[in-house]
Amino acid sequence: MSQEVHLRETPASSTPRVKPPPKASAIPVPFSYTPSDDGTDENLLILLHGLGDTHVPFSKLGRSFKLPQTATLALRAPEQIPYLYEPAYQWYESFDLLGELLAQPNPTPALDLLAKVLQHLTADCAWPAHRIHLFGFAQGGSVAAESTLRWWREHSSAPLGSVVSVVGPLVSYPTSAAKCPTPVLVFDRLPPAEGALPRDAMVAFKKGFETVTEVRKSGKGMPRSRDEWEPIMRFWSERLGRRQVEGLYEVMTGTAG
After folding, report:
1. pTM of the full predicted structure?
2. Which family would the database say this protein is a member of (predicted)?
3. Is 251 inside any structural domain?
4. What is the CATH number of the domain that holds 124?
5. Ranges of H-type helices in 81-185
6. Which of 80, 88, 141, 177 could cross-link with 52 by S-S, CB 3.0 to 4.6 Å?
């Protein structure tokens, strides 16, 4: 994916230009970390796959974005789905004994995992919370959004940078009167498409977050075309930061949204 993104220039940062990579000893699931192509790790995009997948294709997806000054971290879900012949993972228990999807799943194990990852990234890898952005598909999108809300409840002075959820609804209904300031983009499919969000999904997002952008397209599953990725790229262009690199002349192409 070669769409170009023009980033906003931000004030000089006190964090290192090249961040320490995350340690396997601190993250209890397999992952793939890729520093920024241009040598400046100003932003970090965490990618969370959907139900029945692994982190491998999402690592490739993150690299294909070629976002300027942005490192990527693709995480694999912690639980293997039983009785399948190929590796397939879930962020939390999703099926009953008959193989039917649970009506009320418990995402707490996944949220505990993401909390541990975010703590490691901010405390040990020098990432400011507002430079960490989450992208998730379906169940991974639910975990991304729920983790963003939980992080903000526990670190209200340091919200995360942004979250993109592709057909991933909130699993719980926000009850706090205060709303999380982290901007959210929700990518949905037009009904009756398989996997489209429930009717009340946006009500929950708007109850939990101050700024919610909704994009609805025909089709199903992940964004496929340039037209479908364009609003997500524009969303990132308005929220990813750009560090001015001393002694280098940078040419940034593209158009900010």
Report:
1. 0.89
2. Belongs to the AB hydrolase superfamily. AB hydrolase 2 family.
3. no
4. 3.40.50.1820
5. 108-124, 139-154
6. 88
